[in-house]
TrEMBL record, chains A, B, C, D:
The lineage of its organism: Bacteria, Bacillati, Actinomycetota, Actinomycetes, Pseudonocardiales. Pfam families: TetR_N (PF00440). GO terms for molecular function: DNA-binding transcription factor activity; transcription cis-regulatory region binding. Residues 38-57 bind DNA. It comes from Amycolatopsis thailandensis. Keywords: DNA-binding. This is TetR family transcriptional regulator. Residues 15-75 form the HTH tetR-type domain. Signal peptide: none annotated. The keyword Nucleotide-binding does not apply.
Length: 210, 210, 210, 210
DNA sequence: GATGAATGAGGGTTCATTCAT
DNA sequence: TATGAATGAACCCTCATTCAT
């Protein structure tokens, strides 16, 4: 028997449209690029007047900020789910966890190549501020990864003298390379191969056993 | 006593201006971004009429292609110099070679952060075609790196069952991360730390010795 | 024990809001100008929905007409009060009366410089129709002044061959100049000086006694 | 045998178009008002592309500033011509001079009623800055008139205790009234009557000889 | 009656490109 | 060959007005 006041219903509808605009804007930006997309394109695809757009977002620059926020949140949420750094007690468990994380990333970025294209390739070219946001994102990701490494060092299953911060960046670089490679060859085989290679390098390096 | 016909002198001058335009275009693109840069800006900075620009390049899109070509060539040239894959015969030599390559990259990208900013962050956002060119560049770089790995596998100082292609991408990802991290913190210390971390992961991985 | 039907009470409230809208519209127009003021600004300042505005006035153009009507009425009312043209019987009395009228004008326009700004400077620029209304206002004022002059001529304390109509306009021009000068320098001293100068020119002219 | 370099010819043509744009802008503003006039209207009437407009003026606000400057200059030039304040030595000469000035004003404003309409009625409503410019113009005019009065006081043909500054404003107010009255009734008779009335008030006042 | 969400006409402005000189 | 004046497509954004709730 959940009743709803007319006011809250209207508010909900407003939120819904807001979300739809963000999603449609992402669609447009991903398809034709930020600069080639007009506000009118977004509005037309949604079937709303383009003046309506401006009731929900300040201007074109505003919407792309929200699109990016959305994407970053999705990525971070997917990574954080069931993957607490301190839920791991051994190298074997860490291997399993990193495989899970790799799967999650594959699911997110593999499921919609437009995400990687826009977040990792397009966005930084929008303007200087957005470039910094993208670099911020990399920074955040590095801190996340560093958390895992730190835990491993403390528990002794990772090199005790690991430069946690720099190594985290290096590992994230490999993950980035995976995602980028997927843009060219989205086949599951290639993805599996990349994933294996990354983990192999990550844990054991490339040097042959002496 | 090398003389030059007036014709060839004029041709040389034309080539010179062409090059100057490419360089100045890069300056502008790197400073304000591709979309925020007008043809008039480039021409004004060069002190030429902006109509003249169109005598050297088809259109705005044309010039950025040449700028990218220029940058890619510079990077590839710097990497190839004195670093033939088959000049190495042992892991120790490879370590030294990869250190040299790292230094070369640091010199190129560290010397002018605009290069990394434009080639790695801005360019892919220009349009779909340019995005593919950037991905091509990554691909070429992967092939380059794969050459080194292949040689190492053949000579036995790298894991014999290495997935050369995927591993090359992974390693390049770490290099990419190095360069990106430099954009945020260009201090030599951070760069040295990143370089060390990359090579450590690359050769030995992060796992503690069992 | 005056009772009021609900109907008339509602009607009275409507009239009250109507008046408030006109006043608030004047506030906005005077502060930011007609063109820079949006209906939403007026409504927001009143704390009503901007749709409500259209239940009281046809459109934006409609409200400014009412604002002007309001202002003109205020000015005319202030001038007419206790200043009947035929209440005067001599030059001395006319001098006193014109001083009183000057004071009344000073009170109205000096009390709120926005009135002069809007009615005398802004309004005529709104559109052709409003320009004519402003000129109508000047015309009405000229007729008013002419009434006083006519009376003076008839009673003999003003030049018998006075071109009443044209002279009325000329005098009103001096008054207009007074009000405009107040916009730049609202000090009482300047106003008093202007008032004295106007009356001196008006009665005696500037020529030195021969 | 005046030859002209191609450069200077082009420069002259540019100046010419610049002037034409100012004139056409004035035409449009005077006919339909500043706010109702679009840049496209001005360009279309001139038969040029509307982008061309922006090669000559920064923006819409810029052009109206030039239009006003133009008008003010025309008025000031017409007033200053052959009417130096110190060229007068007696009241009779001053009367003749002020008649000449009146004629000059009549020629300027009477010749093109749009000038008065735009400068005196429209302009001040454009925005706060323009309003101040119009008030500046009145101020300048007051100083001009004050110069004449000052001279008359010094030579003794005007009241020795004249408040020169305030009186100048008052007189200018009468002139303003003349010009405004012309907008409603442009007949030469009315203008002549106004002119006579102004001068009569100015020199002798309205009071009957005691 | 009151509201404010939706609308789209309209206008200012930019800038890549052309072409006559 | 170099130039820069001219052009107009394109686009962002505002805001008066309507109308369903």
């Amino acid at each position: 028997m959940t009743t709803e006041t007319p006011v809250s219903r209207a508010a909900r509808k407003k939120q819904e449209l807001r979300r739809e605009i963000v999603e449609t804007a992402f669609d447009c930006f991903a398809e034709r690029g930020y600069h080639a997309t007009g506000i009118a394109d977004i509005a037309a695809r949604l079937g709303i007047g383009h003046g309506t757009f401006y009731r929900y977002f300040q201007n074109k620059r505003d919407i792309v900020d929200h699109v990016i926020t959305d994407l970053v949140e999705k990525v971070v949420a997917a990574l954080a789910a069931d993957n607490a750094p301190d839920a791991v007690n051994s190298l074997a468990e860490y291997r399993r966890q990193s495989a899970r994380i790799g799967d999650a990333l594959a699911r997110i970025f593999g499921g919609d190549p437009r995400m990687a294209r826009f977040l990792l390739l397009e966005a930084a070219g929008i303007d200087a501020e957005m470039r910094e946001r993208v670099l911020d994102f990399y920074e955040t990701a590095a801190e996340l990864t560093a958390g895992y490494l730190h835990h491993g060092v403390r528990l002794g299953y990772l090199h005790e003298d690991l430069d946690v911060d720099s190594t985290a960046r290096a590992i994230n670089g490999m993950i980035l390379a995976s995602i980028l490679s997927e843009l060219r060859d989205p086949s599951p085989e290639r993805q599996a191969a990349m994933s294996r290679a990354v983990r192999r390098v990550m844990y054991d390096g490339i040097a042959a056993p002496s």
